[in-house]
Amino acid sequence: MTITKYICGFLLILSLGFIAQAQQSPVDYVNPYIGTSGHHVTEYGGTVPVVTRPFGMTQWTAMTRENKISKSAYHYDDKKIIGFIGSHQPAVWMGDYGYISIMPQVGEPQFSAANRSMIFSHEDEETHPHYYNVTMNNLNDTIKAEMTSSVRCGMFKFNFPEDKEASISIEASRTKNYNGYLKIIPEKRQIIGYNSDHHNEISGKKMGPDLKNFKGYFVIQFDTDFKSYGTYQRQDDNYDVVKYSKENQGDQVGGYVTFQACKQVMVKISTSFISIKQALDNLNKEAPDWDFKGLIETGKQKWNEQLSTIMVDNSNDDNKTIFYTAMYHSLLYPRIFSEYGCYYSAFDDKIHTGVAYNDYSLWDTFRALHPLLMFIAPEHVSPMMQSLVNMYKEGGWLPKWPNPTYSNIMIGSHADAILADAYVKGFRDFDAQTAYEAMYKNAMTPPDGDEDKTWRDRAPWSSYEGRAGLTWYKQLGYVPVDKTSESVSRTLEFAYDDFCVAQMAKALEKREDYELFLSRSKNYKNVFNPESGFMHPRRSDGTFTEKVSDRTNRPFTEGSYWTYFFCAMQDIDGLVRTIGGKDIFLQKLNENFEKGHYRHDNEPGHHYPYLYNYIGQNHKTQELIDEILKTKYQNSPVGLCGNDDCGQMSAWYILSAMGFYSVTPGSDVYALGKPLFKHIELKTNFPGKGEKVFTIKAPKLSAKNRYVKSVSIDGRKLEKPFLKHSDFVNAKVLEFEMDSIPHKVYVR
CA 489, 493, 496, 501 torsion: positive or negative? Predict the structure, then answer.
């Protein structure tokens, strides 16, 4: 009897454990701290624990520092909170724009970041994609802050000491020479205003065109009557405060409101890029009441809907946390920029009707993020493509890195890649003819002053860069190092972009264009130097520089000649032949990884681990994927080895953990690796196909069985380590047979 009771009790505990585990939803696994710690912007994820909705227009986070270009608003190692910000900063490299921040305080309101700051500990902090809370201390005073959000609005709950006067300061404009405005309306418990800052300068030099009409509008609504209020204007380190002033305009302006001793104050903030009236409309649509708990639950539901497009087995909680956090990071950008049928365009500085997205980190995200979004957020893909087309129609060019307008950050014209990739894979609900017109212009029209400018990285804005050095590329078949900076990288990336333009031309039955651009896609060969054995800086007279590491005009972008050696992803078989065949290619690949030349912390080499598939060494791909998944991604604040770059680093993890990768966006081919989980269910909804579940199985996967013996799709064994997009569209099951020993079963 005693044994029976013991067994029954054990089974009950076990079953309760299973029930608790089953109740864990995908959003519960997300750890927004991942990627928030590191010593330098090049050495960590640069992520921020934002509260928002998938692709939310405005992201809300605690501020531990004043953000700007190369500095995020939150860093895990900081000890104080200086405010709570509604931010639009997409990556640490880029600027914020149209932001609004507030800070709850006890007693007389303070305005400088140092004076208003409060101490906090991560033990007193809780962060999720849909909800955040923290308890802050300042001497003997304690404030608990909570926040949640919708797509364009944030809602806050501040708990103050009951016996002391509470206040909230508002920072409407922080940067010199950028106008801000604030109006306090006590009878409505409301503050309205705008911030025209868009972090457009580095060391006083403009990084993009002026936007005379740009403003980030806001409406702040309180649930409690004001005791007093006022405005301020900052002059250097001094704050000119005017009590009971209701309105102020200028650069570096803000205000405050105070309350009678009260336990709790709730605040709603709505944002808009169109007008104060639109901000109020957004508030009425998205947060019409003070149902804080309801907004949290709706946010959790929205995140779970998006995250549950991929369900993985529950064998390892750390892996699930890394996986679903990577999905969270992959579902933030490009951000929604339209507001219920209208949007402000930062490309012609006007208001338009339609749908808009912004903040495309194209040099990074064409590689994995945009291919991933076709699986996990297909309903957003065509609107994102149309947004790029609209940017061309409104500004004259497809953008390189919109933030929120043109910038000359990074190289190439990789909008070509994501447009072609979407079209080739069946996403057609956008203006493809105009998209091709824009792509053709990228490929054929040099930017203003191309023959006279070297186009150095982050040079002061003079005109849109487009494909800088295109004049020479069209004449010589390569970008010469004595004419244009980053010449080797530009040549390689232009050749890849030409391949993408060619695929779009082919799909639209433009045969002559197709042949022209396909021929140009081989131009990578023109910078290969057989003597050095590398892609080598080449002068306009046809000669190569004396050393491949020549620093003249910085021939390589964010890396070295090793970084770009394998970057002809559009013609890997041709690259193998160009450098001397499979044996030399294998030797170079091995040296790249074994001698530490490969850097997973930056994007140019993200396809390199998969290149072994192209020379019959697919087991090496499996070993590398295994190693990178387990060592470069961790469940900790330092868990990203490099900047996430608007989800690219995270998207690489998601695709690779599912067992495949898009080596050549613009084509319909995926290279196989090995899955991280034994069982994955991918809910797809490709255009015209409806919803279905695509299952990825690896039942014998283990630490011992780390190699792929064979792969089958719907029971049909694959002869090569590659899939086509049509396999995902039409089939139902991808199964990996795993083994403990390497298998070279595929022949290319």
Answer: negative
Residue 404, token pair as written in the block: 């929120």
Distance CA 91, CA 332 (A): 11
The percent of residues in the chain predicted with pLDDT above 70, rounded, is 96
What is the average pLDDT score of the chain?
A: 94
Residue 384 has pLDDT above 90, yes or no: yes
Fold entry, domain 310-451+466-739? GH92 mannosidase fold (3.30.2080)
* Segments making up each domain of the chain, as ranges: 29-291, 310-451+466-739
Selected from 2.70.98.10, 2.60.40.10, 3.10.20.30, 3.90.1150.10, the CATH number assigned to the domain covering 29-291 reads 2.70.98.10
Helices 317-330 and 292-307 sit at what angle, rounded to 10 degrees? 100
The yes-or-no verdict on residue 11 having pLDDT over 50 is: no
User: Cα separation of 19 and 317, whole Å?
Assistant: 15
3-state helix, strand, coil in the chain (%, to 5): 30, 25, 45
Output the six-digit token pair for 334: 């490009």
Residues 412, 497 contacting (CB under 8 angstroms): yes
Q: Please list, residue by residue across 449-469, b when 16 or more beta carbons sit within 10 angstroms of its beta carbon and e when fewer do.
A: ebeebbbeeeeebeebbbbbb
Distance of CA 90 to the CA centre of its chain: 7
Measured distance CA(539)–CA(530) in Å, rounded: 16
Angstrom distance (rounded) from CA 411 to CA 420: 18
Phi and psi at 74, nearest 5°, equal -130, 135
DSSP 236-282: TTEEEEEET--EEEEESEEEEEEESS-SEEEEEEEEESS-HHHHHHH
**pLDDT at position 510 over 80:** yes
One-letter amino acid identity for 565? Answer: F
pLDDT of residue 23: 61
Please give the span between the terminal C-alpha atoms of the chain, in angstroms, as a whole number. Answer: 65
Beta bridge partners of 138: 141
Structure tokens at 86: 């509604």
CB within 8 A of 17, min separation 6: which ones? none
Dihedral Cα 286, 288, 292, 293, nearest 10 deg: -80
Rounded CA-CA distance 58/488 in Å is 38
Q: What percent of the chain has pLDDT over 90?
A: 89
